[in-house]
C-alpha cells in the first residue's frame, strides 16, 4: 500500500489545520495539498507546497503590482502568447514541491532532469523498507525488435510466470541478505551505507522534488509522452492532473502547444507549402532523410 495508516493520519491532520495567508492562493492546488495520489504498486506523488498561480505568470510578464489583469480572458490570452512564443521566464515564477515515492530505477531516469532541487531518503542513515516494484502481468514485455529503448509484445503464459517469479524471489532474497548484513541481532554487522549496495533497482525510495513551472513543463513534455517508459510516464501523468488544477490556463496552453503541437524544420515547412500548392512531394524530392520524412508523415497524418 502507498501509505501506512500513520502517514494517512498525519496528512489528515495537516489538511485539518489550514492557515490564513496573504499570498496568492490557487484553489485547484489547495485541493491537492498533502493528498497522496497512488502510482504503481507502492508509489505515490503528493503536493507539499506551491508558489504562484496563473495570475503570477501574467504579473511577472507585465511586471505589475497586483494580479494579472481585470480580464480573465486577457490573462489566458497572454499566457497562450507566452507559451506560443517560447517566453519561458514568466513561467519560472511558479514553483511546486512534490513528495514522491518511486522505484530506484525510475528515480535514476527522473534525476536526469537536472533543473530541480532534490533531497532523497538516505539509505546511509536509515533502513529501506521491504517494498519492491513488481510489474503487473500486462506490463511484462519482451525487448522491442525495432527500438533498443522500447518494449515489444507482452509476455504470456509460462514465460510471464517465470519472469514474475524471478523478480519476486530475487527481490526478497536480496532484502533478506540486506537485513542479515546489517545484523541487528547483536553481531557487529555491516554499515548501512555498504549494505545498501546489494539491494535491487526495483526497491522504493522517496524524495522531495522542487521545480519551477517552466522546467516542470519540460519534464512533462518528455515523460508524459506516449513514447516514455511506462513506469515513469504514470508518475508524469499523475503530476499532469495536479498541474492542470493548479494553473489551468498555463497547463491548457502547454497541452495545446507542447503536448499536442509539433515543431517543423525549414525543410518540412517547405514541403508542406509545396503540398498545399498541389505538388506531389516524395521523400526523394523533399531533401529530408528517411527518418525525417517518416516523422514528417507522422505529423501531417500522411
TrEMBL record:
One of its GO terms (molecular function) is flavin adenine dinucleotide binding. SUPFAM superfamilies: Thymidylate synthase-complementing protein Thy1. FAD binds at residues 89, 112-114, 120, 212-214, 218. DUMP binds at residues 109-112, 120-124, 196, 223. Its cofactor is FAD. Binds 4 FAD per tetramer. Each FAD binding site is formed by three monomers. Pfam families: Thy1 (PF02511). Its EC number is 2.1.1.148. Pathway: Pyrimidine metabolism; dTTP biosynthesis. InterPro entries: Thymidylate_synthase_ThyX, Thymidylate_synthase_ThyX_sf. The active site is at 223 (involved in ionization of n3 of dump, leading to its activation). Keywords: FAD, Flavoprotein, Methyltransferase, NADP, Nucleotide biosynthesis, Transferase. It catalyses: dUMP + (6R)-5,10-methylene-5,6,7,8-tetrahydrofolate + NADPH + H(+) = dTMP + (6S)-5,6,7,8-tetrahydrofolate + NADP(+). GO terms for biological process: dTMP biosynthetic process; dTTP biosynthetic process; methylation. Gene3D superfamilies: 3.30.1360.170. Belongs to the thymidylate synthase ThyX family. Catalyzes the reductive methylation of 2'-deoxyuridine-5'-monophosphate (dUMP) to 2'-deoxythymidine-5'-monophosphate (dTMP) while utilizing 5,10-methylenetetrahydrofolate (mTHF) as the methyl donor, and NADPH and FADH(2) as the reductant. Homotetramer. This is Flavin-dependent thymidylate synthase. It comes from Candidatus Rhodobacter oscarellae. The gene is thyX.
Amino acid at each position: 500500500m502507498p501509505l501506512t495508516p500513520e502517514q494517512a493520519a498525519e496528512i489528515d491532520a495537516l489538511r485539518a489545520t489550514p492557515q490564513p495567508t496573504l499570498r496568492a492562493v490557487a484553489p485547484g492546488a489547495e485541493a491537492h495539498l498533502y493528498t497522496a495520489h497512488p502510482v504503481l504498486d507502492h508509489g505515490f506523488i503528493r503536493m507539499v507546497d506551491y508558489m504562484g498561480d496563473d495570475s503570477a505568470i501574467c504579473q511577472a510578464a507585465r511586471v505589475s503590482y497586483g494580479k494579472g489583469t481585470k480580464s480573465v480572458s486577457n490573462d489566458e490570452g497572454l499566457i497562450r502568447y507566452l507559451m506560443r512564443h517560447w517566453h519561458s521566464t514568466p513561467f519560472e515564477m511558479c514553483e511546486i514541491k512534490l513528495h514522491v515515492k518511486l522505484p530506484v530505477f525510475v528515480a535514476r531516469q527522473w534525476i536526469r532532469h537536472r533543473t530541480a532541487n532534490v533531497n532523497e531518503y538516505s539509505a546511509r542513515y536509515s533502513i529501506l523498507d521491504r517494498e519492491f516494484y513488481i510489474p503487473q502481468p500486462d506490463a511484462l514485455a519482451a525487448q522491442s525488435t525495432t527500438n533498443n529503448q522500447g518494449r515489444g509484445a507482452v509476455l504470456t503464459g509460462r514465460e510471464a510466470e517465470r519472469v514474475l517469479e524471478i523478480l519476486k524471489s530475487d527481490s526478497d532474497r536480496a532484502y533478506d541478505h540486506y537485513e542479515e548484513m546489517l545484523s541487528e541481532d547483536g553481531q557487529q554487522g555491516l554499515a548501512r551505507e555498504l549494505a545498501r549496495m546489494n539491494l535491487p533497482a526495483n526497491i522504493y525510495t522517496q524524495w522531495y522534488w522542487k521545480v519551477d513551472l517552466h522546467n516542470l513543463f519540460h519534464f512533462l513534455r518528455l515523460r508524459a509522452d506516449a513514447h516514455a517508459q511506462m513506469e515513469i510516464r504514470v508518475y508524469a501523468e499523475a503530476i499532469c492532473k495536479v498541474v492542470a488544477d493548479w494553473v489551468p490556463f498555463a497547463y491548457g496552453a502547454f497541452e495545446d502547444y507542447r503536448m499536442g503541437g509539433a515543431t517543423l524544420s525549414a525543410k518540412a515547412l517547405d514541403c508542406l507549402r509545396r503540398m498545399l500548392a498541389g505538388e506531389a512531394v516524395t521523400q526523394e524530392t523533399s531533401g529530408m532523410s528517411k527518418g525525417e520524412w517518416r516523422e514528417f508523415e507522422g505529423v501531417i497524418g500522411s
